[in-house]
Amino acid sequence: MSGDGSLDRLKRDGRIVVVGASLAGLRGAETLREEGFTGSLTMIGDEPYEPYDRPPLSKQILLGRATADHTLLPRRRAIDAEWRLGVPATGLDMAARRVRLGDGDEVEYDRLLIATGVRARPWPKEDEAELDGVFVLRTRDDAYALERSLAQSPRRVLVIGAGFTGSEIASACRERGIAVTVAERAAAPLVGALGGVIGAVAAELHHENGVDLRCGVMVTGLEGDSTGRVRTAHFSDGNSVEADVVVVALGATRNTEWLAGSGLGAGPRGIACDAGCRAFDIRGIVTDDIYVAGDVARSPHPLFGYQFLSLEHWGNAVSQAETAAHNMMSESADRRPHIWVPAFWSSQFGVNIKSVGVPTMGTEIVIAQGALNERRFTGVYGYQGRVIGAVTFDQSKWLQFYQQQIETTAPFPPPFPTVDRRLEGQHPRDADFPDPSVPTHGPTVTLSGYAPDDRRLTFTPARH
Amino acid sequence: MRLVVDLNRCQGYAQCAFLAPDVFAMHGEESLLYNPLAEEERHEEVARAVAACPVQAILVEADPSAEAPRTRPGGDR
Ligand SMILES: Cc1cc2nc3c(=O)[nH]c(=O)nc-3n(C[C@H](O)[C@H](O)[C@H](O)COP(=O)(O)OP(=O)(O)OC[C@H]3O[C@@H](n4cnc5c(N)ncnc54)[C@H](O)[C@@H]3O)c2cc1C
Ligand code: SF4
């Protein structure tokens, strides 16, 4: 494609279709225009709304500080797109370069950006999931419905799953003075994402804030009353709890079903793409015209041994969409890899939890600053003698430093003295992640592929 | 006025909460809660907060009339 004028033609009057009109779709579209794309742009989204922001849904919205229809994303620029909202894409014809829509229409493209994200995993027993008072939380409509039911002062809320979303929901309930029980299959909240050492601190946060936390149990069934309203939940340990609101927070499922049979390398784990965001087909050959970004993507990361990372992180969606759009508008030599260092935040029980890198790869952890029992600390994760991730509780100022450590594959444990290092920070200990073959709720990073053992990699992070 | 804060970047410096307290508030030691749809009357305070944020974490919609989605008969709702 280089130098033959085809890129210029694409830029001038090509047809680009974006499927999934949320964070990644919008930021990708804006970047396309930013990079000089003047052709036609079509935004296809199955939700009836313009792109909105999800993180506030489990925070400001559930606290009643803003309403669910108030999180529309600010635009960086006008994108002059044709919007097809409230219509799902239902199929893809790769040979004819056509997307089929739920209303029977078809849209042709020269380049396609897939950003269909994930959806909340529903309660597995359908009849129980349909009881009144049973919720999930992923969309604006979900948040609206859940907030409304919290406003009616339920006697008790049961949250199933203590990942980030479940913990934030429990936190919002307690802040509103609502009694809440949290049921988690693992030994503590957040263990899937941050390991058992940090999970123990998270469990204390739940207890201190009056959450009835039940770990190591599974909810085996939900029972409704004669009007079809949820009333009781039964646990695997034989106990049960009365709750009039149940929130199922068991993680997410990738929205790839619409690509079944298309020949694209899409499945339950997401859509595999190369470091430049180009999708693989099922033969493992990279496509020229289909790009992926955001929660639905799985992409290899040079810093983590080219393992395929699936990240359900806000910052990843933005960065990957920008890279995908840039690469669509570039000759191959001008393309850049998506080498964003994973980062996320969560706010719960008044504590600001932030993380960089891939804690789930860590086998050891050292509390490099502060103290666990003060709820203000920096935990650094190590893997094969290098720093691989870090987490802070109310100490985000240190995160940037450890991000650099990760980027430069600095040795673990950190050999230098750190400010405010306590006794517990002298020696690393087992980070205590659950056995990866046992499913847990809410890891926000999942890994597959090869283990990173190449420490000689040099890495220059993108800064935009 | 639509706004979003990149909370990966935000360092909880709280300048925004000081300059536009009706829109930004600290929640606990360093968590920031903000109103994602601030009232137009707060425009000036918000602009000051945007300018004061040491890590440029606050994005406000550049032009409120930037775009009413162009719809297509039958396709949109
Ligand atoms: C309650 C909640 C709290 C969160 N909090 C945080 C946080 O604190 N920190 C953090 O880093 N991240 C957080 N996240 C994650 C963050 O919101 C996501 O990473 C981000 O939304 C990903 O954007 P995306 O565009 O890739 O996918 P999505 O936002 O999932 O968007 C995908 C869009 O595509 C649509 N779609 C799906 N299939 C089709 C189809 N076939 N045709 C057309 N459209 C389709 C979907 O309906 C959706 O609108 C949170 C998420 C939730 C739900
Ligand atoms: S001024 Fe910026 S860094 Fe400080 S709290 Fe506000 S958004 Fe965060």
UniProtKB/TrEMBL annotation, chain B:
Domain of life: Bacteria
InterPro entries: 3Fe4S_ferredoxin, Fe-S_cluster_ET
GO function term, MF aspect, one: 3 iron, 4 sulfur cluster binding
Cofactor(s) named in the record: [3Fe-4S] cluster
Family matches, as Gene3D superfamilies: 3.30.70.20
This protein's UniProt keywords: 3Fe-4S, Electron transport, Iron, Iron-sulfur, Metal-binding, Transport
Protein task: Ferredoxins are iron-sulfur proteins that transfer electrons in a wide variety of metabolic reactions.
Protein name as catalogued: Ferredoxin
Organism: Streptomyces albiflavescens
Lineage, uppermost ranks: Bacteria, Bacillati, Actinomycetota, Actinomycetes, Kitasatosporales
